[in-house]
Amino acid sequence: MLSIGSIVLTVEDIGRAGDFWREALGYVNRSEPSEDWVILDPPGKAHWAAPGASLALSVTGYPQHYPPRIHLDLYAEDQAAEIERLLALGAREVDWDHYPEGADWVVLEDTEGNRFCVVQTGPYPQP
């Protein structure tokens, strides 16, 4: 049976991207990063096959594609607070006009232009 081990994001600056995603997710380096590769694991993940998807960052030199064909959905019980925190870490808001009425997600991008959504999972705000 297959399972997702790592999700790989293409980046231009491995240090900047690593700093962002370690702070955003609370992940840690699996081992010392190289110039073009690092794998970030959930804290306490003792073995590569342990539960919990890892996030790998890869400098490939390929240009980003817009819109991207894959993105992360990050779940948040307090979406507004998480968005504020992520913006302070260097995330950027994406000017995206395709939200349906009542959307429970907001599209952001990381320091390298990789898009992700912050999805409200906790109590929904009252109108």
Describe the SSE topology.
Elements: E1 6-11, H1 14-25, E2 28-29, E3 37-41, E4 54-59, E5 72-76, H2 79-89, E6 92-93, E7 105-109, E8 115-120
Parallel strand pairs: 1-4, 5-8
Antiparallel strand pairs: 2-3, 3-4, 6-7, 7-8
Protein name: VOC family protein
Domain VOC: 3-121
Organism: Microbacterium helvum
User: Helical proportion?
Assistant: 10-25%
The secondary-structure class comes to alpha/beta
The N- to C-terminal Cα distance equals 44 Å
What fraction strand?
A: 25-35%
Q: What is the CATH-assigned architecture of the largest domain?
A: 2-Layer Sandwich
* CATH secondary-structure class of the largest domain: Alpha Beta
Poorly predicted ranges: none
Query: Which fold name is given in CATH as the topology of the largest domain?
Result: Signal recognition particle alu RNA binding heterodimer, srp9/1
Largest sheet: 4 strands, mixed
The structural domain count equals 2
Order of helices and strands: EHEEEEHEEE
Which value, in Å, is the CA radius of gyration? 15 Å
- Overall pLDDT level: 90
Tally of DSSP β-strands? 8
Strand order of the largest sheet: 1-4-3-2
Large-scale geometry: globular
Protein name: VOC family protein
Domain VOC: 3-121
Organism: Microbacterium helvum
